[in-house]
């Protein structure tokens, strides 16, 4: 593969990865806006980013691959992916251990707060990864424009 083909492949990885990482963040916002417009009711599915984790994981892997190939933003993308995985898996594990997942424990108190905090940190890590993807794309397309 020539230099142009290599650069094009890296850009493709970065574009696909960035789009996939932003889907779990933007989907609940979009669906909430549509529900508000159509029914006049505001409903936000705050669990949707976690439900769309396979999409975010695929995007994160593509972004890590693109960052390694481009030798740029590897730490931002890699650490935010790791943080997202740890927070989601840890939060789900905590929900199971505390009984929140089964319904044995009411969704209140410190247990609920920890699980929600892990979801918030997970979503923030996805946003950081998405920002890393945007920065990577800016660098990749700036380089090719010279």
Tell me what you see in this structure.
The chain is mainly α and 146 residues long. Helices cover 83% and strands 0% of the residues. The chain has helices spanning 3-39, 48-51, 53-70, 74-98, 109-145. Helix 1 (3-39) packs across helix 5 and helix 3 runs antiparallel to helix 4. The model has no long low-confidence stretch (mean pLDDT 91).
Helix amount: over 70%
Low-confidence stretches: none
Note the overall shape.
globular
The number of distinct helices, counting runs of at least 4 residues, comes to: 5
Strand content: under 5%
Count of distinct strands: 0
Question: Structural class, from helix and strand content?
Answer: mainly alpha
Radius of gyration: 18 Å
Chain-averaged pLDDT: 91
Order of helices and strands: HHHHH
Q: Major sheet: size, sense and barrel closure?
A: none
Cα end-to-end separation:
21 Å
Q: TL;DR of this structure?
A:
This protein has 146 residues and is mainly alpha-helical.
Descriptive tags:
146 residues; mainly alpha; 5 helices; 0% strand
List the helices and strands and how they pair.
Layout: H1 3-39, H2 48-51, H3 53-70, H4 74-98, H5 109-145
Helix pairs in contact: 1-3, 1-5, 3-4, 3-5, 4-5
């Amino acid at each position: 593969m020539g230099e142009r083909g290599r650069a094009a492949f890296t850009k493709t990885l970065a574009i696909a990865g960035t789009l996939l990482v932003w889907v779990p963040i933007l989907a609940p916002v979009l669906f909430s806006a549509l529900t508000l417009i159509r029914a006049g009711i505001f409903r936000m599915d705050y669990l949707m980013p976690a439900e769309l984790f396979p999409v975010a994981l695929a995007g994160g892997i593509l972004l890590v691959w693109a960052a390694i190939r481009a030798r740029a933003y590897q730490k931002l993308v890699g650490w935010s992916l790791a943080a997202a995985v740890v927070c989601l898996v840890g939060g789900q594990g905590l929900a199971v251990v505390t009984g929140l997942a089964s319904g044995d424990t009411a969704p209140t108190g410190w247990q609920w707060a920890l699980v929600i905090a892990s979801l918030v940190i997970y979503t923030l890590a996805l946003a950081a990864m998405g920002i890393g993807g945007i920065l990577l794309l800016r660098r990749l397309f700036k380089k090719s424009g010279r």
